[in-house]
Amino acid sequence: MARSTFASRSYRDDAVVLRTYTLGEADRIVILLSAQHGQVRAVAKGVRRTTSRFGARLEPFNVAEVQLVHGRSLDIVSQAIGKRSYGERIVSDYERFTAAAAMAETAERLTADDHDTAAQHYRLLVGALSATARGLHRPGRILDSYLLRAVSLAGWTPSFVDCARCGAPGPHRSFSAPLGGAVCPQCRPPGSAAPSDATFVLLNGLLHGDWPTIDAADPRTARDAAGLVASYVQWHMERTVRALALVDRGDG
């Protein structure tokens, strides 16, 4: 009977580790973004002991197949099978690490109460972490593309060509984070930014994952775009992504 009750309370899912922190002498609380169950907060008992069988699998940025048991306030991780170990390659490089930390923090905040798009957020984050770990593109540019696509999943899709307020065909020369991106002269609020044409082209490429355009951008354009991405994301999330202040942009 006890075994049947345990089975009814348990579930399995693939999950990426967003963050961990210690609990007591041997346990750890892990915050997971799972493919089917959204964000999960769980206790991994005994993982800080040297004899732990799955402690390394539950480090940030790693992907594992986990078995969890429903608890009163926190679920319990009863098993973790490693699937993709991105963490070691990410944390060994500061530029990769800071970019991945900003991605994980953003994912944690966007998925805290959103189960409807959990699978899409999961795939987007795993893809971004994979690209970062493998060094496919500059980490800062992977981050900026991830940020724009993540907030789009959350319902705040920007426009970088047509006017975000009235829909007037673009391209336009002004940018307003509160209004949703590019704005025409008639809709432009006082104090709006005036990015270069190249910056708008890069922003649109970041939004749509156009990697030839993204990779070809010069460092100055990439830095300008990064500042606009950060302002847009944090305005619509209504909170600061603390890890963004630590991001090492390298050569842009």
TrEMBL record:
Q: DNA replication/recombination mediator RecO N-terminal domain spans which residues?
A: 10-82
Protein keywords = DNA damage, DNA recombination, DNA repair
Q: Which GO terms describe its biological process?
A: DNA recombination; double-strand break repair
Pfam families from the UniProt entry: RecO_C (PF02565), RecO_N (PF11967)
Q: Which SUPFAM superfamilies match?
A: ArfGap/RecO-like zinc finger (SSF57863), Nucleic acid-binding proteins (SSF50249)
Its GO CC terms are: bacterial nucleoid
Q: Which family does it belong to?
A: Belongs to the RecO family.
NCBIfam families per record:
reco (TIGR00613)
User: What's this protein's function?
Assistant: Involved in DNA repair and RecF pathway recombination.
For this protein, the record's PANTHER family field holds: DNA REPAIR PROTEIN RECO (PTHR33991:SF1)
Q: What is this protein called?
A: DNA repair protein RecO
Supply the source organism for this entry.
Kocuria rhizophila (strain ATCC 9341 / DSM 348 / NBRC 103217 / DC2201)
Gene it is expressed from: recO
